[in-house]
Amino acid sequence: MAGIEHYRMAMDPAIQKLGHMTTNRHKYFRWSPRTARITFIYTVFVPVVLGVIAYRTDGKYDLRAKRKGDLIKEF
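^ NADH dehydrogenase [ubiquinone] 1 beta subcomplex subunit 4, sequence as received from the core. Prediction below:
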């Protein structure tokens, strides 16, 4: 397959613009009520909920070496 270089692609302006915006996202970020709420949910609320679930179920389930007919619950 001589002749044309097959690995080159035509540069699409929309893809270049998307790449530029992705690379420079930190320059265009602004705090708003929506972004503050999302940040709070993912940095505080979700870890607290997962921690409470983990604390309440700690030691209740033993998933190792169970035989047929044995219960998963240990309480």
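The chain has a mean pLDDT of 85.
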